[in-house]
User: Fold this.
Amino acid sequence: MGITRRDFLTRVGQAGGYSAAFLTMQGLGLLEAKAAPAVSISAAAGSGKGTKVVVLGGGIAGLVAAYELRALGYECTILEARERPGGRNWTVRGGDKVAFLDGTAQSCTWDQGHYQNFGPARLPSIHPTILGYCKKLGVELQVEVNMSRSAYLQNDNANGGKPAVMREVVNDTRGHVSELLSKSIHQGALDQDLSKEDRDRMLGFLRTYGPLDEAGKYNGSDRAGYARTAGAGDQTGVLNQPIDMHTLLDESFWQGMLFDEQFDMQATMFQPVGGMDRIPYAFAKALGDAVKYDSPVTEIRKSPKGVTVTYKQKGSTKTIEADYCICTMPLTLLRSTPNDFSAPYKKVIDECTYASAYKIAWESRRFWEQDYNIYGGLEFVTTGCSPIWFPSAGLFSDRGVLVSGYTDESNSPFGKLTVQEKLAESRKSIERLHPGHGKELEKPMYVSWGKMQYNEGSWIRSYGPGQQRAGARSAQPGQVQPAASARTAVNPGYETLIQPDGRIIFAGDHVSHIVAWQEGAALSALRAVGQVADQVKAAKLANGADKAISA
Ligand code: PHE
Assistant:
């Protein structure tokens, strides 16, 4: 018995609810796929059986996508250009080589056990997706110390150029602000805004918060530390002189002070024991031969049945046919990869811009721990490179690897220096904050993601002219971002990228609101898998519909 489309859809709706009817209509071409709501994966176990997906790129997004696809029964292959998994998630150790696109190379000769995460190097506790995979895959985590109250802040134009310790800056700022507020209340400036009761409560609060004396003055505080610490016998403690308010109002001081107030920089933060690359290697182990290394993609074509991808493997050209493609490659690379993307996608790819974040790392005696009581954390400095980032691993051992310089160097005067000049700048900042210790730095390693083959950028900055995204990190890693509400621009390039281009679906941190974080990569991958599953479901229903209609 034949039935009409309308009857069929009504029945699908009755049996499977609104979403089944919706997907069926989509599959029948009655609705534009674009209108599909963003859903997390809601696909039945085994629903991927018989469907082939090719994943382009073996970074976090590609690995998560393949892992979840396989769990649903899909047949899945990752094409990864390098001989290792992880993409930007890259840990460099002694014996490793860093090669740039311009043909220059550096060899790492650090001692056994030393490493630097040149890509992601911290995992916030508010990133449950990537932390969840660590747990699931048995990646052991340890605390990453993002900020230390013993670390320094410095600006040539403030405080006579003298470095200040974080605990002074934090607590003296609080003291001055409290004193001003207390004064305003005493002078009646807030009588209109606060009831008598709340004024009294506020004054009580400020006395402890400041802390302020009975007269409402901030006279310094032991929270800000000591010029001479208290000891045994007759050694009394001598408090630091408070830093004056004018100095603390300098941007470079309060920016550094507020760094770990940012949502994604707050304690507690984590890192895998032994290096960030423990994460991609754990995925790779779980995925086995689904990951094809040494397989750079050279062409991405749509076909009547799906997608055809051409790649190189050990010099020979190969192709792979699949029903769907999840493409996690950096947009900078897609620019020069022949493809069949629709016009709006080509436009984003052509017009987007990427940052080139770099890090310079050195091996050294742990002078920061041994001579300054600094264990992990960031320091901010205006001379040379900033920030300085002390290691959280191997605390109390003799030597370690620190970072001096981590910013976006694209379109910057720093970016134009030679590598030797950059290294000299990096050493200078250490010398500025820790005089005499610049010369302890050895075996420098410099990685800049814009210079890396298969990356050509560290993270997306804009999706087209005027299309800076909230998470796109226009500012430097060492700067505090403006409040989130100030950063929610409408962004057509991004809106394009998050929709499937037929059977090609984009993923990666650039296809999320959490740019430059592994969490964004993982979430975009989960969403992409959901989009594949939706299309598969819709196609199956449509297939059933066609059969029913023609029967
Ligand atoms: N996630 C990267 C980091 O931890 C990049 C980033 C820097 C993201 C600053 C946000 C803010 O450094």
Notes: The chain has three domains: 5-33+167-223+238-251, 52-89+278-351+478-550, 93-151+356-451. The radius of gyration is 28 Å.
